[in-house]
Task: structure prediction
Amino acid sequence: MSDYPPIRKAVFPVAGLGTRFLPATKSIPKEMLPIVDKPLIQYAVEEAVEAGVDTIIFVTNEKKRAILEHFDLDEDLESHLLEQGKPELHQRITDIIPAGVSWHYVIQEQALGLGHAVWCARDLVGEEPFAVLLADDLIRSPKDGCLKQMVDEYLATGAGSMAVEKVPAAMTDRYGIVSVKKDATGRDYIQAIVEKPAPDVAPSNLGVVGRYILPGEIFALLESVRAGAGGEIQLTDAIAAQLKSRPLLAHAFEGVRHDCGSRQGFIQATVDYALEHEELRQELLAYIETVKGR
Ligand code: G1P
Result:
């Protein structure tokens, strides 16, 4: 048993425009783009549920109905699949949200940044510690999912955290960058965090990837931070303020992260997940052989 309250709620900011994937994302939210046969957002929701989350909160905008439709019941489709004698396909639909897990949404009226998106979920989250997952960071882990690894560490220490990995030194301006200090137990505590610093001023090359466990106090801090990098309300700036009163951990997760917010990352994720898929693997490998050197 842990001394700390469980992480039951997870916030999924999904209001972004996904311009890097236009024209595909003109009518389809980028989080609905599939890797093999599942939309990105579903991988993230599954990772949260595996970590013990039972309350899913989407922060979305009026135009991105497709995400809500994906998680909504579709009784017609369900009965159609059963009548057609396709129980496996029926199961794939009913598994989208497992029993005991509820989902909710809140509309972010204006695109004011990630910090603002998280802040929009304040009434649904309340005061307890909660998770934030950015679905375009897709993480395939060998055993426990990334968020489960972080929740286990939180339950042991009571400290919130964010997932980090080394990024190329020239790319620090694409990430929140942290500097860390190890404590006696070997855990990395965050000393400083900066949003998208240029390589010459970055405190390290440890980049934040889209998984966070945050205390409920972060909402009050989000309220007071001003627009930062890119003119947006940055989650990173509220986290920097939070560090003054509460230690937070940098979690170097086990697993491979694909940046599915970029086309290259998205394609690599597709290949990676297809190679893990027993029905697809052999044929894909054979195909890759034929295109090598093209
Ligand atoms: C956001 C965060 C950034 C983090 C990144 C991870 O940036 O602001 O700190 O490193 O997600 O994917 P975005 O990619 O939304 O610009």
